[in-house]
Specification:
7 helices; alpha/beta; single chain; Rossmann fold
Length: 182
């Protein structure tokens, strides 16, 4: 039996930039082409790893390490994986890159002001609501209360304030097919 090779892409960007919508559209487009893919949404996973999150640096280190390890295990089993997580520190994404041989980073670039406006309007399934309002009251939010370290050399950049969700997803799928699904 021939085993399929897995791969992982980490979709990163500020809260509200469109990571989840784009990740879900990428999954849909891949499914249409017969490729099953698993999305690991950090906000959903965090509920199991830290049911009462404090968002401390130590807790974030643990949660992101667990996320990278889950992705590694899935990839080793031949499963393509989309990691949907802000990962405000480069070290979190770089840890995944060292663990996963077929790995790429996708940066969803979007101005903070646009992210803040989008976040006010969204009804997210798993992520905390009104995250930027909480930052104004002292919460540690990437881009506001905690610096967001942009990727230095991402394999794909989509500007979600200039491209639609579908256009962004198509750009990512083109990359996946040129790199992992040849």
């Amino acid at each position: 039996m021939q085993r399929r090779e897995g791969w992982a892409i980490w979709v990163t960007g500020l809260p509200g930039c469109g990571k989840t919508a784009i990740s879900r559209k990428v999954k849909e487009l891949l499914n249409e082409r017969g490729i099953d893919v698993k999305i690991l949404e950090l906000d959903e996973i965090r509920r199991f790893v830290t049911p009462n999150p404090t968002y401390s640096d130590e807790e974030r280190d643990i949660v992101y390490a667990a996320l990278a390890y889950m992705a590694k295990l899935l990839v080793e089993c031949g499963m393509p994986v989309i990691i949907d997580a802000t990962a405000h520190r480069r070290k979190y994404r770089e840890r995944a890159r060292t663990l996963i041989s077929r790995f790429a980073e996708v940066y969803v670039k979007c101005p903070l002001e646009v992210c803040m406006q989008r976040e006010r309007q969204r009804h997210a399934e798993h992520s905390p609501s009104r995250i930027y309002e909480k930052a104004q009251r002292g919460a540690r939010v990437p881009g506001v209360g905690v610096p967001y370290e942009e990727p230095l050399d991402p394999e794909v950049v989509v500007e979600s304030d200039k491209l639609s969700v579908a256009e962004s997803a198509r750009k990512i799928v083109e990359f996946i097919f040129s790199t992992f699904e040849r």
